[in-house]
Design brief:
Shape: globular
Radius of gyration: 16 Å
Strand order of the largest sheet: 1-2-3-4-5
Strand content: 5-15%
Helix content: 25-40%
Largest sheet: 5 strands, mixed
Structural class: alpha/beta
Distance between the termini: 30 Å
Number of strands: 5
Number of helices: 4
Length: 154
């Protein structure tokens, strides 16, 4: 049972952003401060990736653990209410993520996913470590595919 009225829940949900989220802004500001220039939500690529680094043929995606269904993550808990709606929605997001990443790699782009749990919460990594790893990936020195939280979950 939801603790909010339908009107209050609707208002709360309307305030959730799909772009310019706190984790995305942390990564963007940090990489920009390091001199890495990027394009935001590049329309020429399918799925409009979060950060595109054309100079290095690299893409950085910043995923919210809830919205992208981060498995075995403390920040992802399937809602108890309206399970049929949420399970379908989150599964479609996961499928879209896989499809987009496949399309990008087919076009020669390298893709790094940074999960929200690596940036916020009690298991977060140190931001400078996340940015170091991301910069290394972008510049082609590291081939990590994901950056996750400090508690070691996938």
């Amino acid at each position: 049972m939801d603790v909010h009225s339908p009107a209050k829940r609707s208002f709360n949900m309307s305030k959730i952003r799909s772009t310019n989220t706190k984790p995305e802004l942390l990564v963007r500001r940090g990489l920009f401060a390091r001199g890495l220039r990027y394009r935001l939500h590049y329309k020429s690529l399918p799925g409009r990736p979060d950060l595109v680094f054309p100079k290095w043929q690299a893409i950085v995606q910043v995923h919210g653990c809830f919205w992208h269904g981060h498995a075995r993550c403390a920040r992802f808990k399937e809602p108890a209410d309206n399970r049929s709606y949420w399970s379908v929605k989150i599964e479609k997001n996961r499928e879209r993520d896989v499809s987009n990443e496949a399309a990008w790699t087919e076009r020669g782009w390298r893709v790094l996913t940074i999960w929200e749990c690596a940036l916020v919460g009690r298991h977060r990594l140190i931001l400078s470590d996340v940015l170091d790893r991301a910069q290394s990936f972008i510049e082609g020195k590291d081939f990590a595919l994901t950056i996750r939280s400090a508690n070691g979950h996938p």
